[in-house]
Amino acid sequence: MKAVGIVVEYNPFHNGHLYHVQQTRKKTSADCVIAVMSSSFTQRGEPAIVPKWERARMALAGGVDLVVELPYPFAVQTAEWFAQGAVSILDALFCEQLCFGSEHGSIEPFIKTAQLLVYKKEQHNEKVKQYVRQGINYAKAYALALYDIGHDTLDVSQPNNILGLHYVKAIIEQRSNIKPETIQRIVAHYHDETLPVNDNIASATSIRRFLQVSDDDVARYVPHTTYETLQTYRHTYMTWHDWEKYFPFLKYRLLTMEVDDIQQIAEVEEGIEYRLKKAIIHATSFHDFLSAVKTKRYTWTRLQRICTHILTNVTKKEIAKAIESKRATYVRPLAMNETGRAYLQEVKKHMTLPLVTNAKHMRHDPIYQIEKKATQAYVSILPEPLCSEALQREYKTPPLR
Amino acid sequence: MKAVGIVVEYNPFHNGHLYHVQQTRKKTSADCVIAVMSSSFTQRGEPAIVPKWERARMALAGGVDLVVELPYPFAVQTAEWFAQGAVSILDALFCEQLCFGSEHGSIEPFIKTAQLLVYKKEQHNEKVKQYVRQGINYAKAYALALYDIGHDTLDVSQPNNILGLHYVKAIIEQRSNIKPETIQRIVAHYHDETLPVNDNIASATSIRRFLQVSDDDVARYVPHTTYETLQTYRHTYMTWHDWEKYFPFLKYRLLTMEVDDIQQIAEVEEGIEYRLKKAIIHATSFHDFLSAVKTKRYTWTRLQRICTHILTNVTKKEIAKAIESKRATYVRPLAMNETGRAYLQEVKKHMTLPLVTNAKHMRHDPIYQIEKKATQAYVSILPEPLCSEALQREYKTPPLR
């Protein structure tokens, strides 16, 4: 059997994702589509609107054959580390291809640029540092430095282009046999916050925003299973998961933390801990808080990730230890259909990473220890006894079928 | 002017406390009654039902002339340290007497027993250790060891007797000129949980319990000002402060803490951190949680204090540094009437501790740093923008008149 990998967040799974899965299958004629999916928190440092289990169910219904977890130490990360983790898992699962959606739409410039980045790594790093020293934020500095070392075809200010570039770069660096592919995204702007009226495709950001107001508005932009899963979740748990819900916990935590302890938290650098401590006293919402902390130097995304690490109490030291090898240390399926199951059956005897269906066995793995803390922080907003039940779900849920 | 000191929690101020203030004034014929009052959390490790400012207002209306804060590092402590802190503040304020309520009711056995404890300190400590090693909890071990070194008149299993004993002992140890006095308590049982029907005096525990159900039931057991203050507080803040309200925060915190970090927390000893970590997963309420953690060795009170220290993130190291000298480092009035103001005016030029009316100036004091964290944890349960307002109150509230 032949497998293609995709890297996803499905926050939540919508018609654009459905299209991506269908196009991936068509373009690669793979037998099995494997999605590596962020767990409880996303790359941009936000709690996923519903837990990984619900999102995995949506993915299965949307045509994915196997959903595996991208654990927190890789998921809540810069694009570079996010890609390293995802590629290492797809590689461990013997995917022949990795197919990502991008603004650009053809693979050649990704390969060229990635090669340039790998072979002129030090030169590029040096340039990035120079720009950052000038007060330019990391994303911009990265693009400018890329231009300086001779690149001029790929627009890396586009969020999916930059992610795609990092997948290809990770493939090269990990000497993986995975062949990268790309398909053009049909949602023009990732950050769109209004729902389009003439189409049935909208960004996940706009869908999440509209879910806060009314479920009905989003029905046409998501497959039926997504709609139903979201409804059931809210009916059972009485909430979505969004930053505002976690704000009381973040505030409580920041208020009772010493500045020295904030400095230990992942991604905290250069005195931002003092800004955080000061702004939290007056902030009455997460949005207010981040607006007060924001400077030119820190992107909103970076600040959101820092807040996520504070919430989950994940330190620089822990993260560094966990991702030292730049690879995942286990593969954890969250959901699979018959095809997914058959594929796993076929490859598992050759796999060099443990295939984990019961998280209990991973208790002492540094990556899993972080993943577990993140799950525990994630369910903290649920009322009892739902919170306790959700906690036990992390250990007790076998991969969904 | 002549001042008498009392040590209180007023959680909340009730008719029994009113009687105590009146009797104290009568017995000592002091011009000024000074109450040292626990701040946000009590000696038994519970959040006070309303903030210190509200409780100070009740005290003033109940006849106290000056209310000063017993800061967290002394307030949330064993009886011994609680007494050391309180006596040091009353001593700094030149109180001539300290008058406490006790089950026993006459002062001689307190003085005798305290002297015994001071002069046979090492012998007593050694005996206590022996009993604790046998698995007996600290309170019992303390009483048994006291009996062993020759004491036989004071029943130290009574909570107010033991507190009183520690006041007298602290007076001796601190070589203070304060003269101790006691009056018999008229609430027979401190831990009573039902309201008496034939009287207008009930324990604070039973009053707190009944407040959860209905305000009306408690009206006859508290002065009018207490009743009104409680009503206004609940009307404004939509809540009382009790452990169950803080349980989501405690649970979140314990779940995301490493075992090593729990070991650093004040009063955590002998592997209790593993019991805490294990029990929290299944616990759906604070009461369930503590019941699951409880062993013979740990009293309920001790466990509650540990939970309070976890909630406020107060470590052994911080506490040790703060109370190294066994004395308070400042005197902070929370409320005063004209008599209280006149008294302060008279004594302040002779005081050796700073008199703090704006907490901002104490920012770098180790005791105040802990007090501040406790305030911040205490207000975390309030909805926004009330939480932010309450935080600013800590700095901005001048002593009430």
Describe the structure.
The structure is a homodimer of 401-residue chains. The first copy, chain A, has helices at 15-28, 52-61, 72-75, 79-92, 108-119, 121-133, 138-148, 159-173, 204-211, 224-237, 243-256, 259-264, 272-282, 286-293, 300-312, 316-322, 338-347, 366-379, 386-396; strands at 3-8, 32-38, 66-70, 97-102, 179-184, 333-336. With 401 residues, chain A is an alpha/beta fold. Chain A has a domain at 243-320. In chain A, helix 5 packs across helix 8 and helix 18 (366-379) packs antiparallel against helix 19. The interface between A and B is medium-sized, with 29 and 29 residues.
Any idea what the radius of gyration of chain A is? 20 Å
Task: Please tell me what the overall shape of chain A is.
Answer: globular
- Tally the helices of chain A: what do you get? 19
Strands of chain A, total number: 6
Largest interface: A-B, 29 and 29 residues
Query: Ends of chain A: how far apart?
Result: 19 Å
Counting copies of identical and different chains, the oligomeric state is homodimer
Q: Stretches of chain A where pLDDT falls below 50 for ≥5 residues?
A: none
Task: Please give the order of strands in the largest beta sheet of chain A.
Answer: 5-4-1-2-3-6
Q: Write down the secondary-structure element order of chain A.
A: EHEHEHHEHHHHEHHHHHHHHEHHH
Helix fraction bin of chain A: 40-55%
Mean pLDDT of chain A: 92
The major sheet of chain A is characterized as: 6 strands, mixed
Structural class of chain A: alpha/beta
